[in-house]
Automatic annotation (TrEMBL):
Bilayer topology: Single-pass membrane protein
Keywords of the record: Coiled coil, Membrane, Transmembrane, Transmembrane helix
Principal cellular location given in the protein's record: membrane
UniProt protein name: Uncharacterized protein
Record organism: Methyloceanibacter marginalis
Subcellular location: Membrane
GO cellular component: membrane
Coiled-coil ranges per UniProt: 174-208
Gene3D superfamilies reported for this sequence: 2.40.50.100, Helix hairpin bin
């Protein structure tokens, strides 16, 4: 009787040949582990060795605002439009300014009427004063004659008193006219100063209002926010912005680093798509809080020192673009680590 399955003897088992697996999986695993460890080290201690900072592409800004309540009547510009000094931007209307001009004009008319009245009175005093002085002089001579007659008892007491009264009235009229002349001269001078101030105030208000036309104070580009027709703005409220001058990077420097950061240092700038080179133009002696787009959820908000970076290619990045600024130490530059890690271009 033959067995259905041949049993192997336990003392005569064949040797099993192990299958040799490839090293590809292990290499990928170690590579991923190395990249992860490098990322962790860079996140924790990268600022000590590498310059890693965030910045914004900015230009000098001129804000258009009015010191009065204004309503937009017409808009002659568009977003990003290039303008020159003196170009018309907006047409505004201000009831407040119109009322102020009307009030100033009314006050100026009142001052002119008063000045005219005072000039007439001053001219009358000027014409009457010589007559009053002559009358007073003649009254003095008459009194002297009456004194001589009174001493000789050739004049009555009533006539003597009447002569004294006439002399008194003549001198009083002369004194009154002289006083009026001096007072009118001072008042006319004050009125002339007030009229000059009124003319100056009206001229300044008219120049400020300029019939509601807002002209560009600088040559540059219009910002992204454009007012609409009918919008009403309060005094000091920004209406629009004009950006002028060469663009630059306002960078927020890290708080900790083991290398010097100085003016003239060359850095790499990238926005994730385009890259260029820049030079540290100025390190500002001020600090500021990082903008919200730069803040890390896992790190508390902190203040960083500011610096300005001059861009080699000014047309590379749009305005207000968020960029990253980096710089490798000389040793890593020699090893061309930047191109290996893909953190920037090496022009």
């Amino acid at each position: 009787m033959r067995p259905l399955k041949q049993r192997l003897r336990p003392d005569n088992l064949p040797n099993e040949q192990r299958v040799m697996r490839g090293k590809t999986g292990r290499t990928i695993y170690l590579l991923l582990l190395f990249v992860f460890g490098l990322a962790v080290v860079n996140y924790l201690f990268g600022d000590y060795i590498l310059l890693q900072a965030d910045g914004l592409v900015l230009r000098d800004q001129n804000v258009i605002a009015t010191p009065y309540v204004a309503r937009v009547e017409s808009v002659d510009i568009t977003e990003g439009q290039a303008v020159k000094v003196g170009d018309a931007l907006l047409k505004l209307q201000s009831t407040e300014i119109l009322e102020r001009l009307a009030d100033l004009s009314t006050k100026r008319a009142d001052l002119m009427a008063k000045a005219t009245d005072f000039k007439i009175r001053a001219e009358s005093v000027t014409q009457l004063l010589p007559l009053a002085e002559r009358r007073a002089d003649e009254a003095v001579n008459t009194i002297k004659q009456f004194d001589d007659l009174a001493a000789a008892r050739l004049v009555t007491s009533a006539r003597y008193q009447e002569a004294l009264k006439v002399s008194y009235e003549a001198n009083r009229d002369r004194v009154n006219l002289k006083t009026q002349r001096n007072v009118l001269q001072e008042e006319l001078k004050s009125l002339d100063d007030a009229l000059e101030d009124a003319h100056d105030a009206i001229s300044k208000v008219e120049a400020l209002y300029a019939e509601g036309t807002v002209l560009s104070p600088v040559s540059g580009s219009i910002g992204a926010s454009i007012p609409s027709v009918g919008n009403v703005y309060r005094p000091g409220e920004p209406i629009l912005s004009i950006y002028y001058g060469e663009p630059y990077i306002l960078v927020y420097l890290p708080r900790r680093y083991l290398f010097p950061i100085s003016v003239g240092m060359t850095v790499s700038i990238t926005d994730g798509r385009d890259s260029t080179e820049g030079v540290v133009d100025e390190i500002l002696p001020v600090t500021d809080t990082l903008p919200k787009e730069f803040q890390n959820t896992f790190k508390p908000s902190d203040r960083s020192q500011l610096a300005k970076i001059k861009i080699d290619d000014s047309g590379e990045f749009p305005l207000n673009q968020k960029v990253s600024v980096s710089r490798f130490p000389p040793v890593l530059e020699m090893l061309n680590v930047r191109s290996l890690l893909g953190l920037g271009s090496d022009d």
